[in-house]
């Protein structure tokens, strides 16, 4: 520890320290304020404002991930469509809808339309094999009440009616099909985060922007959180009983600094991305849907191509992608040394194992990095055959760090696509790693954190949690009546009924 850190004195003591001003910290803070209003909270953010990394609206697709259109949640196994993951993701998103509705009812969130809007979710198939798969997927999902009012069509006229922009100049001799539901959503997680943090500040939570957490050290039963003011360079220490590390790609390193032995062997694989964003208002007005297709061979699930309607600050937008890329940074506004500094003796075998096993991913990323702007527009033409280069621009997506979990020989390490929660045995510190479905299931992830880290409180908190999220502890896939009640309630509260 540097001499500056050694001489820094504890300046504050709090019950809960939240690292990162993104959707995860904002969600956990909101839950704990309702469960324990007397507990003090503080938020540290290295940037100058909230939701400027992965939660920023143009850094993610804004899909309310409920497995309505995302084909990677319904893999084909031994000739059958496995919908178990789709059901799990859908149930978690229902908890998000319930929690947001409760927060709106109680004045914590202020305006639903700022952060959630109804946008149809569409799955897109091309060619005989994909069309056959999509039809069987539709049949499997539509039989389950979690996926209401889904429709399927392989008729070009229906395709043209639903997706006029995608039909222009399309050769329908190449068979296409779509399945869709009008009940999908677009979510601005940046706006949602800001509403949560505005309420947090009003209730007494201190939020320190431009404060980078540089170390976390055990201090008896509590933690010392060392922060550096990036403007003044001053180092201060805050003592916290519980620490949540919601720092995106930097979470793994901070958990290591805290000596959390549960992250031993874990590693991170950074994946960057690019979008094509429409700059022609006429194009934007012709499309209103989130259209997901099949991923390229070797592509990570987060790189599934989609043509996406966005609603940001009350205005419609349109993006396509993401195109995979690679950067050694663990955050969009991180350092080029992030990856190299993360390699340790305990996770070297994890990195090497994934390097040997993921040849397809490596080839995919190399191919993606080599693409020119014209190459990207050519890929867009699979979705929008009439696309012209002058109507689109390139924007950089948020940086994602995929989790590499340690594993025994002969595997040595496995690349995980999803969201991973890690906590120490005592439950006094926890962090979240990974990517999609991520923000969409933040309330469900934070419920899991509460169970793991605050088990002694769960009985006394039970009624309040049930009030916040009525389906907590209940399998909605088996309780159609409760699902219907919650759907009607959240549709109304979130202003999604058109």
From TrEMBL:
Cofactor: FAD
Keywords: FAD, Flavoprotein, Oxidoreductase, Tricarboxylic acid cycle
Catalytic reaction(s) noted: (S)-malate + a quinone = a quinol + oxaloacetate
The keyword Oxidoreductase belongs to this UniProt entry's keyword annotation: yes
Documented EC number(s): 1.1.5.4
Enzyme class: oxidoreductase
Signal peptide positions on this chain: none
SUPFAM superfamilies: FAD/NAD(P)-binding domain
Pfam families cross-referenced by the UniProt entry: Mqo
InterPro entries in the cross-refs: FAD/NAD-bd_sf, MQO
Gene3D superfamilies the UniProt entry points to: D-Amino Acid Oxidase, subunit A, domain 2, FAD/NAD(P)-binding domain
GO biological process: tricarboxylic acid cycle
GO molecular function: (S)-2-hydroxyglutarate dehydrogenase activity; L-malate dehydrogenase (quinone) activity
Protein family according to the UniProt entry: Belongs to the MQO family.
Name of the featured protein: Probable malate:quinone oxidoreductase
Organism: Corynebacterium flavescens
């Amino acid at each position: 520890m540097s001499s500056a850190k050694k001489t820094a004195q504890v300046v504050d003591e709090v019950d809960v320290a939240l690292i990162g001003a993104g959707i995860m910290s904002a969600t956990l803070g909101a839950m704990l304020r309702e469960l324990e209003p007397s507990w003090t909270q503080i938020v540290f953010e290295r940037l100058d404002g909230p939701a400027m990394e992965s939660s920023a609206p143009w850094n993610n697709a804004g899909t309310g991930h409920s497995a309505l259109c995302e084909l990677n949640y319904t893999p084909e196994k031994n000739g059958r469509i496995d919908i178990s993951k789709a059901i799990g993701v859908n149930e978690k998103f229902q908890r998000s809808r319930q929690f947001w509705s409760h927060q709106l009812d109680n004045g914590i969130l202020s305006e639903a339309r700022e952060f959630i809007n109804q946008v149809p979710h569409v799955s897109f198939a091309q060619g005989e094999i994909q069309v056959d798969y999509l039809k069987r997927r539709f049949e499997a999902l539509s039989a389950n009440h979690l996926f209401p009012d889904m429709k399927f069509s392989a008729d070009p006229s229906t395709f043209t009616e639903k997706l006029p922009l995608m039909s222009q100049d399309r050769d329908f001799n190449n068979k296409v099909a779509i399945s869709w539901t009008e009940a999908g959503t677009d979510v601005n997680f940046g706006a949602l985060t800001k509403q949560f943090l505005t309420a947090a500040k009003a209730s007494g939570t201190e939020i320190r922007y431009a404060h980078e957490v540089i170390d976390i050290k055990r201090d008896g039963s509590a933690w010392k959180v060392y922060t550096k003011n990036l403007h003044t360079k001053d180092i201060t220490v805050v003592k916290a009983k519980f620490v949540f590390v919601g720092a995106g790609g930097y979470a793994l390193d901070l958990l290591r600094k805290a000596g959390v032995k549960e992250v031993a062997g874990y590693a991170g694989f950074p994946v960057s991305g690019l979008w094509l964003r429409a700059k022609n208002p006429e194009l934007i007005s012709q499309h209103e849907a989130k259209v997901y297709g099949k991923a390229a061979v070797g592509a990570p699930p987060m790189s599934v191509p989609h043509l996406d309607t966005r609603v940001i600050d009350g205005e419609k937008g349109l993006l396509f992608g993401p195109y995979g890329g690679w950067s050694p940074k663990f955050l969009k506004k991180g350092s080029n040394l992030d990856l190299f500094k993360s390699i340790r003796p305990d996770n070297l075998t994890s990195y090497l194992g994934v390097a040997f096993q993921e040849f397809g991913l490596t080839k995919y990323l190399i191919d993606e990095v080599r693409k020119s702007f014209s190459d990207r527009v050519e890929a867009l033409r699979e979705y929008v055959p009439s696309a012209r280069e002058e109507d689109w621009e390139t924007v950089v997506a948020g940086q994602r760090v995929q989790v590499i979990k340690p594993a025994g020989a002969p595997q040595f390490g496995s690349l995980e696509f999803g969201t991973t929660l890690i906590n120490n045995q005592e439950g006094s510190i926890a962090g979240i790693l990974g990517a999609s479905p991520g923000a969409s299931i933040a309330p469900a992830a934070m419920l899991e954190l509460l169970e793991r880290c605050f088990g002694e409180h769960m009985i006394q908190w039970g009624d309040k949690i049930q009030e916040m999220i009525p389906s907590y502890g209940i399998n909605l896939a088996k309780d159609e009546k409760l699902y219907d009640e919650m759907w009607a309630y959240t549709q109304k509260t979130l202003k999604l009924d058109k």
